[in-house]
Every structure is written in structure tokens, then in C-alpha cells.
Amino acid sequence: MLDAIQNTIERLVWGDRFEKLGRLGRALAVVLRYLYGMLRDVFSNQLTLRAMSLVYTTLLSIVPLLAVSFSLAKGLGMVARLREVFTQSFTQLGPDGVAIAENILQMVDRINGRAIGAIGVVFFLWTAVSMIQKVESSFNFVWYVGKSRSLKGVLEPFSTQGNIDLLKRAGFVDIVSVSKFVCFEGFLAIK
Fold first, then answer.
1. Got the DSSP string for 66-100?
2. Closest among 63, 103, 177, 85 to 71, alpha carbons compared
3. pLDDT tens for residues 17-66?
4. How many CA atoms lie within 13 Å of 101's alpha carbon, on the beta-carbon side?
5. Percentage helix, strand, coil for the chain under 3-state DSSP, each rounded to 5
6. Would the CA dihedral through 27, 32, 38, 40 be positive or negative?
7. What angle do CA 70, 75, 191 make, to 5 degrees?
8. Residue 175 class from Cβ within 10 Å (0-12 exposed, 13-18 middle, 19+ buried)?
9. Buried b vs exposed e over 23-55: b needs ≥16 C-beta within 10 Å?
10. Whole-prediction pTM
């Protein structure tokens, strides 16, 4: 019964009945097709599942990012500045916020910067690649692209000048290449 109703709606929406009615009919057909596609995707729960996957991967990538940031701060002797920034930002959480900030900073004092930094970089790269693949997979699902690009196609690098131009368009004024390995290049950019 439901299949018959769905087939009737699909024939109505994707058929040429509305297009025969002229410009207004074509506009109505486009609106109905978008509405039908959106509702079909929402009710299949695939959009929610993909959104949850992106949120999970984003949260997973925060941990190695914090590990790398803390090891850099410790290595550069910026722990005092980090204490000040953390204390200020966590005061908004109330009295417990200051205690949380202090616990995090005590943990930072105890870490081995080199080990955490190296492990953090590896996991950060892994989560970054995973995030890129999930975003592309989600876009492919939404736009009904049948075949995904290879990892090489996704990670195809820009030239050094292309990356510098992107950073300048994003508002960064001082940009320096700090490391280059095969096709990966790291930049330090100041806004």
C-alpha cells in the first residue's frame, strides 16, 4: 500500500505533468522535487546519521588538537600565559570552572611534551583525513554522487602560492612556511 502511494507521488513529482502547464508548472515541479527529495532524506534518517558522524569526528579531533597545543605551549614556555587564558575563559562557568581550569593546567604540567606532541600530531592527521572523507561522503550522499574520489584526489595539495593566497584571502597578514614534507606543508599565519 505504501509502495503504491510512493510510486504515485514519484510519478507525479518526477513526471512531466507540471511541465506541460508552462512556466508556473515548471517552477512548481522544481519546488515539489526539492521538497520531495528533502523529505525523503529526512525520513530515511540518513541525514541525521551523517550529521552525528561529523559531530563525533569533530569531537574526536579536538583531543589530539589540544594535546598538540598543550605540548607546544609547554615547549615554548607559554604555560603562564596559558594559565591566564584558561582561568579567564573558565571563570564564565562559575566557581567550578576555575577548578576545572586548574585541573587541566596541572595535567599539562605533568605531560611529556615530546611524546604527547608526536602522538597528538599522528592522531590529529588521522582525524583530519577522516573528517575530510566523512564530509565528502556526506556531500556525495546529499547530491547523489555515486562514486567518491580517491584519498589522493581529496588530499591533492595546492601549490605553496595557492595556500598563501587562500590564507591572505582569509585575512592573515603574516604567513611563513614552517615545514615541508613530500606534499604536506605547514604554515604559521598571524591575523
1. HHHHHHHHHHTT-HHHHHHHHHHHHGGG-HHHHHH
2. 63
3. 887 888 888 888 888 888 888 888 788 888 888 888 888 888 777 777 77
4. 20
5. 75, 10, 15
6. negative
7. 70
8. middle
9. eeeeeebeeeeeeeeeeebeeeeeeeebeebee
10. 0.51
Distance separating alpha carbons of residues 91 and 107, to the nearest angstrom:
19
Residue 148 reports pLDDT greater than 80: no
For the record, the C-alpha cell of 103 comes out as 585541573
Nearest to 145 by CA among 156, 137, 135, 154: 137
**Count of all residues that appear for the chain in the document:** 191
Give the HSE-up count for residue 23: Cα atoms under 13 Å, Cβ half-sphere.
0
The confidence band for 151, taking pLDDT boundaries of 50, 70 and 90, is: low
For 46-183, list the strands marked E by DSSP.
174-181
Cα 78 from chain centre: 28
Residue 167 neighbours by CB under 8 Å, 6+ apart: 175, 187, 189
Are the C-beta atoms of 114 and 101 separated by less than 8 Å? no
- How many other β-carbons are positioned within 10 Å of the β-carbon of residue 71? 22
Domain boundaries, the chain: 1-44, 48-149, 157-191
